[in-house]
Design goal:
It is built from eleven helices and 19 strands.
């Protein structure tokens, strides 16, 4: 395999890793970073990313290397989708339809790629579990800006990849933890990529911005709080009853020691460091100053050596191309014409008429087949989405309505909320939490109950512990379907 160079950048510096792979062995030739140089344009100072990249790649060994470009999470919109059970060939179109419905990007030419987090049994039965998908949306304007920066640096990207998934892939390929569920932390500049892995697969991912200009202890405290928030969200979502057993941080032996100590003390979970160059190869030019920042770049190169990337915005997953049956029909028609022509010149008139009729009928037959195939595919997609959204409940407006009606946080805290749609129409909401007083739960029921909501608390019990919320409760609520026009104006909470 030829040499590979992986590059990425943030607001402060640009980084690159140059490597080669042969015989299944990865050799890292260079890993270094340079600060971004500012340049003035129209009286405004802007970082010159292209110039910094040119300085990084001013090395004869990087000539004609396969270029891999990493994109940070802040430039990409990530959506967690639950889709109807579908075949693998149907997923790209389903993901595209659902992503453009839920995405903040309104451009039709935005690039959408995805990974499957979990699949149910193949088929379209009513009780089949949904297909869980993480979709990534990159606008065309952002893609053009990345390509323009690379062009200014003399780079032609072969792939444009998502940085957090590349770091998680490096960990999954080269680290074999005994823990089934773990949290991976990759610190790059003032950002931290937090990825929850179960059995080596990413099931939840988020990126957080860390404060600048503060001490290491303050950064460790903020990162610990964000890790705790990530664990809570993942526990209520994709992980379910499976807790995170250990936390891993990418970095060298002397990196992030304060973070490891704070996380271990505050969360009570074991935490350890993983050096990306210890699990792969030490660069020929020596280790960089902050090895942990290069984890995603090493992961991109390792994935390229295996020719397997989770996401690639230059080559997103597409539906398979339909079989062109017209070529087959044209070949058959040509054979018929040749056979008839061999009978002799005396039958030329009759053969010509027969040939014209064959071509006309063949084209008409293919047109009907194509129309039937296109109609069948669209009908299946419409039926699948219609079955999935049968309840006709606008959940975003329902959540907004509940947030207006619910008591304030000083009186009540929700711990869990589950929403389900019913085939017969409407849906149901189950939620539980803690309250300061049982009358708070009673007021909650009175505030929520109306012509569209029936609410009943199955359990209100004093748990005998806790300072501010000694009462726990479990409440179920039925939601009636209604026209979307009734959600246009937010409903005010009853006095």
């Amino acid at each position: 395999m030829p040499r590979m160079v992986a590059v990425d950048w943030d607001r402060r510096e640009a980084r690159c890793v140059l490597a080669s792979a042969a015989g299944g062995k990865l050799r890292i030739l260079m890993a270094k970073a340079v600060p971004l140089v500012d340049w003035a344009e129209g009286g405004e100072s802007r970082p010159d990313v292209a110039g910094s990249l040119r300085a990084l790649l001013d090395d004869p060994r990087s000539a004609r290397a396969v270029a891999l470009v990493g994109v940070d999470r802040t430039n990409v919109e990530v959506l967690n989708l639950a889709l109807p059970p579908a075949k693998e060939s149907e997923l790209p179109e389903l993901v595209g339809l659902q992503a453009f419905r839920e995405s903040q990007a309104t451009e039709d030419d935005a690039i959408v790629d995805f990974i499957v987090l979990g699949t149910g049994e193949e088929g379209r039965s009513d009780d089949a579990p949904p297909t869980q998908v993480m979709a990534a949306v990159l606008t065309k304007a952002q893609l053009d800006e990345i390509q323009a920066t690379c062009s200014g640096a003399g780079i032609k990207p072969a792939r444009i990849l998502l940085r957090p998934l590349a770091a998680a892939s490096l960990f999954a390929r080269r680290v074999s933890p005994t823990e089934r569920v773990c949290l991976l932390v990759s610190l790059v500049g003032d950002e931290a990529d937090l990825s929850v892995l179960a059995d080596g697969r990413v099931v939840f991912q988020r990126t957080v911005r860390l404060p600048e200009g503060v001490g290491e202890e303050a950064v460790a405290q903020r990162l610990t709080a964000e890790i705790q928030r990530t664990l809570l969200v993942a526990q209520q979502g994709p992980l379910g009853p499976n807790p995170v057993e250990k936390i891993f941080l990418f970095g060298g032996a002397e990196e992030h020691t304060q973070v490891v100590e704070t996380v271990t003390a505050e969360l009570g979970l074991p935490a350890s460091m993983v050096d990306p160059f210890e699990i792969t190869d030490v660069p020929d030019d020596g280790l960089p100053e902050h090895p942990g920042r290069f984890a995603a770049l090493v992961g991109m190169i390792l994935d390229e050596s295996y020719e397997s990337h989770a996401l690639d915005f230059l080559h997103p997953k597409r539906p398979p191309a339909p079989v062109d049956r017209r070529r087959i029909v044209a070949g058959v028609a040509s054979a018929i014409v040749l056979a008839i022509a061999s009978l002799g010149y005396w039958a030329w008139g009759e053969v010509s008429d027969a040939d014209s009729e064959v071509r006309r009928l063949s084209e008409e037959l293919e047109d009907r087949k194509d129309l039937l195939k296109q109609t069948a595919g669209k009908r299946q997609l419409v039926e699948a989405i219609r079955a999935w959204e049968w309840g006709e409940v606008n959940w975003l407006d329902e959540i907004r309505d509940l947030s207006v009606r619910f008591p304030p946080a000083r009186d009540l805290i929700l711990q869990r909320m589950t929403m389900t749609a019913e085939r017969s129409g409407g849906g149901g909401i189950e939620f539980s939490g803690m309250a300061r007083d049982p009358m708070v739960v009673t007021r909650l029921e009175q505030n929520v109950r109306d012509e569209f909501h029936e609410v009943r608390s199955r359990r209100i019990q004093e748990r005998g512990q806790g300072k501010g919320y000694p009462w726990v409760f479990e409440t179920s609520m039925s939601v009636a379907g209604r026209d979307k026009e009734s959600y246009v104006e937010p409903q005010a909470a009853p006095r």
